[in-house]
Amino acid sequence: MKLAGKSAVVTGAGSGIGRGIALAFADAGTNVVVVDIEGAKAEAVAAEVAARGVRSSSFAADVRDPAAVAAMADHGWSALGRIDILCNNAGVCLTGPGFDISDTDFRWQLDVNVVGVFNGMREFGRRFREQGGPAWIVSTGSHHSIGAPTKGIAAYVASKHAVLGLSEAFRTEYGPAIGVGVLCPGIVNTSIWDAGRNRPAEYGGKVSGDPRNQQAMLDLGMNPERVGQLVAAGIENEDFYIWTHPQDLDLIEKRYAEGRDTITRQWPDGPTAEHKMTPHEV
């Protein structure tokens, strides 16, 4: 799908990957609504977008709330006339051993990373279908969506597996008129390790991230503006998967090999009479 002349909504765009996507869209001639839970940051990025010669607007929203996502969509259509692209990018992460994760920490990460993505897919999918014409939804997963083994972020990993699953499911439901993609970034230079600064009171309030994790992101992470360029290219190429690190090919091959080897060992003769149907054949 060509980006020039289109209009997009990008969540979590006050910094990091979302900001990188918004700027890449602007460079491609796409108008952008910059959304973030921190309204001042959204306004600042919207100004950067406008300075690149396209129309922009900002909106503060908590994507956990379906009413807020509906209001975000209303604002987008009102500000830009139509919306063609949604980037579900808002996300959070807290670290710690899986057996020590509190119920509230687990729920907060899934509420933002999974429920927030679902809210966007559902709300914008309905509107894209009513609007007609081509549209595209990209949701930010992770290389953890395919099993990058990392200790201390069990809830985050679970949430990013769910983003991939939601994207695959909605891809089959939407059909060709609404394209779906999933961004699977590796380490990127963002402030996600400090996401606890925005944790609501109902989940325990603000919490500081581990500065060592943040420094590792600064030292090793890819420039988020480069990630934005990859997202723009992925949409134009109509790719489902958008990768940032080619090293992740090893993860894909390892997962495939383990699945293939266990199936062939457990069922050496292949399907039998008891295997009447497999889920993907329904």
From TrEMBL:
The organism's place on the tree of life at top rank: Bacteria
Keywords, ordered alphabetically: Oxidoreductase
PANTHER family attached to this UniProt entry: 5-KETO-D-GLUCONATE 5-REDUCTASE, ALCOHOL DEHYDROGENASE, PUTATIVE (AFU_ORTHOLOGUE AFUA_3G03445)-RELATED
The keyword Oxidoreductase is assigned to this record: yes
Family matches, as Gene3D superfamilies: NAD(P)-binding Rossmann-like Domain (3.40.50.720)
Keyword ATP-binding on entry: no
Protein name in UniProt: Short-chain dehydrogenase
Assigned protein family: Belongs to the short-chain dehydrogenases/reductases (SDR) family.
Record-level Gene Ontology MF annotations: oxidoreductase activity
